[in-house]
C-alpha cells in the first residue's frame, strides 16, 4: 500500500498515529498475509485482541462514572450493547474504514469487506494500534470520538426519554422478542454521511430513521416504531 494511501487512512482517524507500521498491521487481514505484497508481514489479530481489552476498559470506565444509579447488571447490559460485533462493524462503516482493510483475493471475492467479523476486528485493531502508539489517553480520545453518540443515546435510558429502550420494552412485552436494527443505506462523503436505518420485529419492518450518525438514525427509527405500536395497539 503506497504511503499516501496510509496517510489518507490516518487522516480519517480522529487522533494522530506516528507509527505507520502499526497502522498497516491493524488493517492487514489474515487472508492477505501471503497474497498481498503491500500488507504487513503480520495480520491484525494480535492488535484486535489488545484493542478489544482497551475498548472494554474505556467503556466500563465511562459507564462507571456516568451515574451512581447504574448497578453491575445495567452496566454489563449497556457495555454488551455498545461493544457487540454488529455495533463495531457499523461504526467502521460509518467512518469509511471498510475501504482500507487489506484482504486476500478469496476473502475479497466472498464479501469480506462487509463481513461483520472483519469490520469489528479492524476497528478493534486500530484501537490497539493507537494504544501502542500513543497510550491510553489517546486511545480513550479515539473511542470517545467513535462511540460518543452511541454512549450518549444508551445512557439516556438512565433518565428516561430513550426511544430505543422504550421500543425494546414494547417488543418484549408484546412479542417476547427484541427489535433488530439494520442499515438500509449510507450516502454522502466520509466527513458528512447520511444513514437510513430500519427497525424490524420478527423480520417485519416497523420503522425507518435518517440521521448523520448511526445512533441518530437508530433513535429516529425507534421513534417511528413506537408510533406504529401506538397506532395498532
What would you say this structure looks like, in words?
The N and C termini lie far apart (56 Å). This protein has helices at residues 3-12, 20-26, 45-66, 72-83, 85-94, 105-109, 116-134, 136-159, 163-175, 214-232; strands spanning 180-187, 194-201, 204-211. It folds into two domains: 1-160, Ribonuclease iii, N-terminal Endonuclease Domain, Chain A, CATH 1.10.1520; 161-233, Double Stranded RNA Binding Domain, CATH 3.30.160. The model has no long low-confidence stretch (mean pLDDT 87). Helix 7 packs across helix 8. It contains ten helices and three strands, in the order H-H-H-H-H-H-H-H-H-E-E-E-H. With 233 residues, the chain is mostly helical.
How would you summarize the topology of this molecule?
Layout: H1 3-12, H2 20-26, H3 45-66, H4 72-83, H5 85-94, H6 105-109, H7 116-134, H8 136-159, H9 163-175, E1 180-187, E2 194-201, E3 204-211, H10 214-232
Antiparallel strand pairs: 1-2, 2-3
Q: What's the name of the CATH homologous superfamily of the largest domain?
A: Ribonuclease III domain
CATH topology of the largest domain: Ribonuclease iii, N-terminal Endonuclease Domain, Chain A
Order of helices and strands: HHHHHHHHHEEEH
Largest sheet, described in full? 3 strands, antiparallel
Rounded Rg = 19 Å
Total helix count? Answer: 10
CATH class group of the largest domain: Mainly Alpha
> What is the CATH-assigned architecture of the largest domain?
Orthogonal Bundle
Q: Tally of extended strands?
A: 3
Q: Helicity level, as a percent range?
A: 55-70%
- Indicate the proportion of strand residues: 5-15%
User: How would you sum up the global shape?
Assistant: globular
Q: Average the pLDDT over all residues and give the rounded result.
A: 87
Amino acid at each position: 500500500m503506497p504511503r499516501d494511501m496510509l496517510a489518507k487512512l490516518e487522516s480519517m482517524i480522529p487522533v494522530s498515529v506516528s507509527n505507520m507500521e502499526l497502522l498497516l498491521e491493524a488493517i492487514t487481514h489474515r487472508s492477505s498475509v501471503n497474497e498481498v505484497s503491500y500488507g504487513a508481514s503480520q495480520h491484525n489479530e494480535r492488535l484486535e485482541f489488545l484493542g478489544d481489552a482497551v475498548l472494554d476498559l474505556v467503556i466500563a470506565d465511562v459507564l462507571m462514572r456516568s451515574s451512581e444509579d447504574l448497578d453491575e447488571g445495567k452496566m454489563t447490559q449497556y457495555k454488551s450493547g455498545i461493544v457487540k460485533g454488529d455495533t463495531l462493524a457499523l461504526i467502521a462503516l460509518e467512518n469509511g474504514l471498510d475501504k482500507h482493510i487489506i484482504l486476500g483475493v478469496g476473502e475479497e471475492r466472498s464479501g469480506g469487506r462487509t463481513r461483520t467479523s472483519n469490520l469489528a476486528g479492524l476497528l478493534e485493531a486500530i484501537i490497539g494500534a493507537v494504544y501502542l502508539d500513543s497510550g491510553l489517553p489517546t486511545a480513550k480520545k479515539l473511542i470517545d470520538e467513535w462511540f460518543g453518540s452511541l454512549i450518549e443515546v444508551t445512557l439516556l435510558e438512565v433518565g428516561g426519554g430513550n426511544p430505543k429502550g422504550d421500543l425494546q420494552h414494547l417488543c418484549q412485552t408484546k412479542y417476547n422478542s427484541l427489535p433488530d436494527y439494520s442499515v438500509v443505506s449510507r450516502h454522502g462523503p466520509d466527513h458528512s454521511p447520511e444513514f437510513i436505518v430500519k427497525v424490524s420485529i420478527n423480520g417485519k419492518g416497523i420503522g425507518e430513521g435518517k440521521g448523520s450518525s448511526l445512533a441518530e438514525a437508530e433513535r429516529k427509527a425507534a421513534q417511528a416504531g413506537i408510533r406504529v405500536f401506538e397506532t395498532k395497539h
